[in-house]
Design brief:
- By secondary structure, the chain is of the alpha+beta class.
- It has one domain.
- Helix content is 22%, strand content 11%.
- The protein contains two helices and four strands, in the order ααββββ.
- Strands 1-4 form a two-stranded antiparallel sheet. It has a two-stranded antiparallel ribbon with strand order 2-3.
- Strand 2 and strand 3 form a beta hairpin.
- The protein is globular and about 30 Å long.
- The protein starts with a helix and ends in a 6-residue tail after the last strand.
- Bound molecules: iron/sulfur cluster.
- The site of iron/sulfur cluster has 15 residues, from strand 4.
């Protein structure tokens, strides 16, 4: 049994690091876009996926946006 568990662990280790989960809507996240650079904008957030996506909020996402989930 131990060998089976070990083999399963190896398979998991080769899989995706992050679990899949539904993204929040822009409304749920309090997402807004301003027309000029600001503190805490999407372009500086750890969740931003350029050029226009986000790991946790539904896109499209502007680099000049921000939301309640911002994290640097
Ligand atoms: S601030 Fe971060 S979490 Fe929020 S929409 Fe922009 S990139 Fe996504």
């Amino acid at each position: 049994m131990r060998g089976v568990a070990g083999a399963a662990g190896l398979v998991l280790a080769d899989g995706p690091v992050r679990a899949e989960f539904p993204k929040a809507t822009q409304q749920q996240a309090g997402y807004i876009v301003r027309n000029e650079p600001q503190a805490h904008m999407c372009a500086q957030c750890v969740y931003f996926i350029g050029p226009s996506d986000c790991e946790v909020v539904e896109g499209p996402i502007s680099p000049l946006g921000t939301c309640d989930y911002y994290e640097d």
